[in-house]
Amino acid sequence: MQIVYVSFKTEPGRMPTNTLTLYHPVTPEELDYIKCSNWTQLPAPPEGEYFYPVPNTLYAGDIAWGAYEPEGAYVVRFNVPLEYLSRYRVESVDARWETAYVVPVTDLDDFNRHIVGVIEVVEERR
After folding, report:
1. pLDDT score for 105
2. Domain for residue 35, yes or no?
């Protein structure tokens, strides 16, 4: 297993303290979509009715490793206001730290408008 950490420059200024950092695994094609959006838009998942951002980078990495091999995957990081996130339920999977926000795909455009700053790549899994 090879883990490569990559960071892209964020917008200048301070991050508001009332945001939560979330993580999401993406395929190389989904990363291309994010790049084309100038690092401001997350793509809708190819299947399913929900988008599941997670507040734990390790859990996002585990999802990336299990779901996207052999094509590889990236873990992206982004910030969303806590007040906005409060409208979505949080589900726990196995361990207490394996939680995810449940965002209907129909809300993803609005969710993207609430991302504070830019989306960053924090991990590559191949």
Report:
1. 95
2. yes
Beta bridge partners of 120: 77
Q: The tokens of 17 are what?
A: 């303290």
Residue 2 is assigned to a structural domain of this protein:
no
Q: Which pTM does this prediction carry?
A: 0.80
The token pair that represents 35 in the structure block: 């790049």
Peptide bond into 12 cis (omega under 30): no
Kindly state the average pLDDT of the residues 50-69: 75
Domain extent for 45 = 18-125
Non-local (6+) Cβ contacts of 23 within 8 A are 53, 54, 55, 56, 57, 59, 60, 75, 76, 77, 122
